[in-house]
């Protein structure tokens, strides 16, 4: 089979190679991959950032956001059939650590990640545990179905706190932030305000249903937020940027008793005025991955209710153009680039 491998440590070292088709174990399925969405993690792997070097041991197949169909299954797999349309939960959990025993599978202490700590899906075939294969009705394109893993992370973030009837500020409108805008509107948020300095990403927030778009550069952001929210602070802030300054600034436009849901990542220190945080009764929630598997069920329901994700896909390329896709993601020239694997 054709696959893209991180062949060695260091920047670059990606190669399109041939490997044998893997065989599923008793509790596993073999998936024929039809589409793979390029993620920021793939950029980290290509550039060999600290994040990647701490987690990956080359050689390894990259890629983890994908869709496909079940091509073969192990002898003990009963919940899936040959030909089923699937996407995948990319975090493989141990089921034995304390977090797993408390049903907090999304923060499992021994999580393996497809395409990072084990072979990934930028390949014609991939083997994964059957429990990680999530079945979908084939009413969506393979390209849209490849977005399910980041989409369900957006579902986790956007449903961490009640949305219906509330006002929300969304900081950062990359692919996950843009999908969260759609989730919030589908869940009945009264006013969704996107805060984003990149004009292309700001526009994408509008395409996903945001009520107001605010470029924070050179303005009094707290005043601007109030201006488009009936002169009131917002009820909830959702951060997808990882910009600690922006998160700190959000305290100036969130109401007392408000809530902050943070999915964006950064290695910078977050500094909050503790007295302001405590006296205003604020809640800060970190969002790690997806709650297994409730967020997947919620996400499927929102799609059945009419949520559209196709505006997120701006580029579709053949598998062989993987390097171009990674460059598009690295330079911010795409929202989501999907590789077709045929």
Automatic annotation (TrEMBL):
Residues 10-339 form the Enoyl reductase (ER) domain. Its cofactor is Zn(2+). Keywords: Metal-binding, Oxidoreductase, Zinc. It comes from the Bacteria. It holds the Pfam family ADH_zinc_N. PROSITE patterns: ADH_ZINC. InterPro entries: ADH-like_C, ADH-like_N, ADH_Zn_CS, ER, GroES-like_sf, NAD(P)-bd_dom_sf, Zn_alcohol_dh. GO terms for molecular function: oxidoreductase activity; zinc ion binding. Belongs to the zinc-containing alcohol dehydrogenase family. This is Enoyl reductase (ER) domain-containing protein. It comes from Megasphaera cerevisiae DSM 20462.
